[in-house]
Amino acid sequence: MIAVLCVTPAALAVARRLVAALPQAQLHGLAGRIDDADIVFSDTKGHIGELFRNGNAIIGVCAAGILIRAVAPYLVDKQAEPAVVAVAPDGSCAVPLLGGHHGANDLARHVATVLGGHAAITTAGDLKLGVALDSPPPGWHVANPAAAKPVAAALLAGQPVRLEVEAGDADWLSHLSFAADAEPAVRVTDHAVMAEDQELLLNPPVLALGVGCERGCDPAELIGLVKDTLEAEALAPGAIACVVSVDLKSDEKAVLQLARSLGVPARFFTAARLNQETPRLQNPSDIVLAEIGCPGVAEGAALAAVGAEGVLVVPKTKSKRATLAVARAPHAIDPAKLGQGPGRLFVVGIGPGAAQWRIPQASAAIAAATDLVGYGLYLDLLGDAANGKTRHQSDLGAEADRARMALDLAGQGKSVALVCSGDAGIYALATLVFELIEREANPAWRGAEIMVIPGVSALQAAAARAGAPVNHDFCTISLSDLLTPWETIEKRLHAAAEADFVVCFYNPVSKRRRDQLTRARDILLAGRPAETPVILARQLGRPEETIRIIGLGDLTADDADMLTMVVVGSSESRRIAFGGREWVYTPRGYAKKLR
Q: Which superkingdom does the taxonomy of this entry point to (predicted)?
């Protein structure tokens, strides 16, 4: 993750420009900031150090010395430390302080492009060679990072360096001059080998692991099969570009855990696509053909991943419940161009809608999504965050259709955000997603990864705007009888009244439902006084926001609609005037300790 920090008001505008321009899925948040209320962290140095210690890349819009002093106590291993970039408060320059070859140089260049400033790159290899040997292209792996420094030093000094390419290609090094015979060397290989003195080993992403397994196979068995096979064939794990299989295995725990353990993507092909590789299979199986519609999964998937010019380097090998084959491509494999990845469904609560009420995890999920599904108003509330996304919107009342569409899209391998207002798990669509999964058991959804991301609920927003009305025991009740019989709602109202809960009413009034709110009022009045404070919070977090406080005895259906959150205090709730306005709070018992 990337943390953007500023410690002075003058730097806030530049920091916000960077937050808007950086990939939202990678942002830790605008940390250590001064917000609109001019609130700053009391321990800025400690906060920066904690972010660094936890592995976050840091962009500090501040003096370089502040960052240096903050992270200095945590400097231990240059190969493992995250990038640190200092940015001038006016955006004129970006200086990579740490991790130049581990992302800081690229980050500084990106910052400079965004701000129209200058990236002050100081690493010698980048300046003179135009490349960093220990920071190869994406997917490549440096097997022995310590060897990069002496080899780069030899190139900088004009000394001869040998280049050996055993697998893939090294086009990104083509602008450098290499000798046919020299002691320092760069060796590009997909084999696990011992490096010679002054030899840098680079693994290109040219290997595809084709795997198959029985349903419910123990992940440890498949991982063990891969480990043993790579060791037996002396293949470098760093040269693995992807794990591939048939799409029926897109939800298989063993396959997905294998990919995660190797740090590479998992990709899946249809049986029809694997059938095209039949002429190249070394171990076709009639049993597999009858079972899934193609004669080979492991070999077929590996060959499909490496293309027509690729070759099978390890034919199908198997354990009790799993199979593995390895193929090599002539060039680096780009997993993004292969088959289908496991889809993701983020069920996202966006709070009242405004960006400042949205938690960073929700913003990151929306940024990572290719498709947005939701009620049209909720998608509109995303503003610029929805730019570049495919929108799938529907009207109120089509909740099941929206949830089903989101699952369908995720089942197709897409990253989907199912957008809900407030909190996704409070009178929203999270429960509907799981209910559909249980009831319909659609096999097309099996491979989707699901994550429910919380949001600021309407009751929290209303409470915050009005003071502290739910600081003691409270309950929420929806007054809509479309899904819950009124008899059930009435029982809950009587229980809440008897227990003297603060009650938060969702869906209080609609065009067709005009009497439920007043009936609920009468039930609560049986146990609490007519002057009990009621908060009427409408259009929270939006330009049309209004907050009213009235007495329970004065509450009518005309006071609310479907955009209103109604919070009824308990018999203990209080109305007080302070700072030129009225507030509501519910005592929790602290007064006894304050006497």
A: Bacteria
